Amino acid sequence: NGNYITDFAELDDMFKAYNVYAMRSCTRETAAFMLQDMCLNQALDGFRSRSMRTRKDPLQKRVQELSEDLVRVLDQDSNDEIPMETFATFARLSRLGLLLRADDKPKTDKGPKIKTKLKTALIIVDFQNDFVNGVFAVEHPDQVGDVCQRIQQCRKSVNLVFRVEEQHPPDHISFASESEKPTVVAAHRDEEFKVPELVYATWPPHCIKGEDGANVYSGLATEERDVVIPKSTASDKEQFSGFWDEPRTSQTPLLQQLFDQDVVRVFVCGLGLGVGVARTARDAAAYGFETFVVGDASLHFHESWAREAALELEGAGVQLCTSSSVPEVRFMGIGRLHAISHLSFSCVRLREVLRHGRVWHNSSNFSQVHKLLND
To answer: Which of 76, 134, 291, 355 is least surrounded, with the fewest CB atoms within 10 Å of its CB?
Structure first.
């Protein structure tokens, strides 16, 4: 019946109902239940007449079998633990696949015709006064003007623009008191991503909501279409990423925006390449978006953090590009992404093809799979 996750709100409700956010993962059994919720319940609601009721049980059994097969593939480590990001990525790609397949229906088919367009987005992180000429400025503020011009160049090559901005309360947990010297804790290994990263203890008070330091830098061109994503708004939680706070207990609307607007590729840039830019890019990649950091449209707070940032980005599968290459990168492989999204459960199937050399000859998408493997 072409049922799928309609929008992020539906996935969000499902994650809350199955306690996925608290665990940050789910078991195979839970994942199978969620898959059945995604594709089965609406279909079963249609079996009301007596003549159709006889087909209900076989359909339900078949979907249960497929769900169990699928969760085994999603559980890549075979430890009965599927990361929340993996399931969210699967739900997003499955939704895109069904939308694109619906676009290709013959005109004689019933139902509304909705043209789906895969989009690219630019995410500008922490481009605020305090990080340019305030108490917490980047290491080379004289280069900010050139960076602004490069960001403006990037704008021309994307469909959507998001500005992630810190909006601290005055009593934020990361602020050093007047008698306290700001400190930086040494690097350690993050348990989830297994790459070195810095943990920041206290900083000078900065980007306080309502004050000039929190305003977007005047030299950065902005447009009405820009979507502003506030972060670090809770006084008791640190937040660097544009997606999640550091304890991973609350998230911004950024994922919902990318999910609902059919974004497949993101370019991340801004101030604090080793901090907010890297964390935002890492989370975007974890959610399955093809992620690029625009290196010459970003600046470090301290050049000494560059190595840690590079390791973090490499470990997360984030790619690097320049502002001049964004127009080319934007279209690079869009046909491949389009074809992948056309495949039902594509991320799982293609992974199996590459791992085991198997191809589904009975699949109507066999020619697409064959072309992808050749590419």
So the answer is: 355
pLDDT higher at 278 or 63: 278
- Asked whether 214 and 207 are in contact (CB, 8 A), the reply is yes
CA torsion through residues 291, 294, 295, 300, sign = negative
> Range with the lowest mean pLDDT among 164-168, 172-176, 340-344?
340-344
**Which residues share a beta bridge with 341?**
none
CB-count burial class (<10 Å; 0-12, 13-18, 19+) for 315: middle
Contact status, residue 183 vs residue 176, Cβ threshold 8 Å? yes
Q: State how far the Cα of 239 lies from the Cα of 65, in Å rounded to an integer.
A: 41
Instruction: Say what the pLDDT of residue 62 is.
Output: 79
pLDDT band at 110 (very low <50, low <70, confident <90, very high): low
Q: Which residue has the tokens 């991340």?
A: 268
Nearest to 155, CA basis, from 122, 189, 190: 122
CB count, 10 Å around CB of 142? Answer: 7
- The CA angle 222-228-230, to the nearest 5 degrees, is 135
Instruction: Determine the Cα–Cα distance for residues 214 and 132; give it in Å rounded to an integer.
Output: 11
pTM of the model: 0.79
- Whether pLDDT at 329 is above 80: no
Q: How many CA atoms lie within 13 A of 53 on its CB side?
A: 3
d(Cα 292, Cα 282) in Å, to the nearest integer? 10
Q: Which helix (H) or strand (E) holds 164?
A: strand 160-166
Predicted confidence band of residue 281 (pLDDT cuts 50, 70, 90): very high
pLDDT tens, 67-90?
888 888 888 888 999 999 999 998
Q: What is the DSSP string of 169-237?
A: -TT-TTBPPTTS---EEEEEE-TTT-SEEEEE--B----BTTSGGGSBPTTS---TTPEEEEE--STT-
Question: What's the chain's average pLDDT?
Answer: 78
